[in-house]
Amino acid sequence: MTHTTSPEPTATERPHAGRETPDWLADAVFYQIFPERFANGDHSIDPEGVEPWGGTPTPHNFFGGDLEGIVQHLDHVVAVGANAIYLTPIFAADTNHRYDAKDYFTIDPALGDLAAFRRLVDEAHDRGIRIVLDAVLNHAGDGHWAFRDIVENEERSPYVNWFSVESFPVRPHPVPNYRTCSGCYYLPKWNAYNPEVREHHYRVARHWIEEGIDGWRLDVPYFINHNFWRGFRDQVKGIDEDLYIVAEEWRDPEQWLQGDLADGTTNYTLRDLVLGFTADRSQTAIDFAHGMTRLTARIPAAARPAMLNLLGSHDTERVLTRHGGDVRASLLAQTLLFSAEGAPMVYYGDEVGLLGDNDPGCRGCMPWQSDEWSHEILDGVRALAQLRHETPALRRGTQRVTALSEDCVAVLRDAGELGTALAIVNRGESSVVVPAELLDGRAFGQRWSAASWRIGARLTDDSMGSAPNTTPGAAIEQTVGPRNAVVLVRGGEQSQ
């Protein structure tokens, strides 16, 4: 059988300003939580008009999710296999998504208080889970105290230059007479060129680091000048180089990854490639292999382990929805996610097959009745996460991608003495023969014993299995069945 191997990615070994990314990211599996929709753990703080859990999400309704609800379900996060959590905004705001902060130093009362936040951080850290918060510093909400002062006092306000107001009185309709985020009247844009604004934002960063968080995700950072973010990085890394900074980016990661801005970016480009192959079939395996190689070449080597890889988020349709309800196809996508270089992230509910179109549909309530779950997906995600934790090559190996046919792709992760892993994903309706040169390394310009592989995980008719088959010397199948995947492992000590 013919196969196409993409060339070794060497194009991007740019200087990284002498700065390494936090080492723990190579071992991280993230779990993203939209707090209002994860779990209602404290009904005493439910907002007015709260609706019964599990109702239809809209842009405006509330179901009462809170920080205590997250604490109560941290063991689920651990069971999924995650050891890091990214939380969308939790500061005082007026909306359910809270990207309209009124006070960056106060936990939203509908989510809890500072004591609840400290309990979350402590309980998470006790379980070995790191916490990353959302830094929404391009814009505030129109309820923010500084903006309200401008509305009331106009040009006499001491905060008049904290935002960009063109005239008075302040007018939100029909067209705001102040700069906003994407034209949303309730999201006035900060004037990040103002030294007082910069100091306010940097104080926010320092404050929550002092409260124990492990990093920041930068919301729409491309709307703010890079000098601001260089200062932000200096503030964060000046406290601890081990703190994570990840920039939201949908197209061009390079600008953030030169060592002076962020450690990694949200890897939506990888998402497009994976879903183009497993869901839309707009990408052949050859397209996927070349696309992955080009993407790797665009990312400096030091930043590759710090990329935040995802298939779904609060800004996209659900993974199973994108796959038209096809559980098997969604598991093929998860296999590619967990096999790729960078930190995989699971959006809450995707691990149990939650459905939903893009916002607001993707922000539905997490179902906590296990009879509503897809246990096939859950078992598969758990097995992949477990295999990643146990296999150094999947966490720290270099990456090569090759196409075995138009419908079958192989991802090799090589960590030298730490071992090698090979994920083979076949989306086609026919079995694919695994070439001998792939199993003995010739396809990648290397050579090892084909008999040294063991089966780490395999997609079956039921699931990927709750535990991978890691028996040394296990028989390696010569074919990968239709709509199937197998992850092979060789060498290296398994370690958590």
SSE topology:
Layout: E1 4-5, E2 30-33, H1 67-72, H2 74-80, E3 84-87, E4 91-93, E5 101-107, H3 114-126, E6 130-135, H4 145-153, E7 180-181, E8 184-188, H5 195-210, E9 215-218, H6 226-239, E10 244-247, E11 264-267, H7 268-278, H8 285-298, E12 308-310, H9 319-322, H10 327-339, E13 343-347, H11 375-390, H12 392-396, E14 398-403, E15 408-414, E16 420-426, E17 432-433, H13 436-439, E18 454-458, E19 479-480, E20 484-490
Parallel strand pairs: 2-3, 2-13, 3-6, 6-9, 9-10, 10-11, 11-12, 12-13
Antiparallel strand pairs: 1-14, 4-5, 7-8, 14-15, 15-16, 16-20, 17-19, 18-20
- What is the radius of gyration computed over CA atoms, rounded to a whole number of angstroms? 23 Å
| Whole-number count of domains | 2
Give me the CATH fold name of the largest domain: TIM Barrel
- Label the overall shape: globular
| Percentage of residues in DSSP E strands | 15-25%
Cα(first) to Cα(last) distance is 37 Å
Number of H- or I-type helical stretches: 13
Largest sheet: 8 strands, parallel, barrel
CATH domain class name of the largest domain: Alpha Beta
Mean pLDDT: 92
Strands, total number = 20
Q: What do we call the CATH homologous superfamily of the largest domain?
A: Glycosidases
Per CATH, the architecture of the largest domain is Alpha-Beta Barrel
Uncertain segments are: 1-18, 466-475
State the strand order across the main sheet: 2-3-6-9-10-11-12-13
**How much helix is in the residues?**
25-40%
**Structural class category:** alpha/beta
Keywords: Glycosidase, Hydrolase
Domain Glycosyl hydrolase family 13 catalytic: 32-388
GO biological process, one term: carbohydrate metabolic process
Protein name: Glycosidase
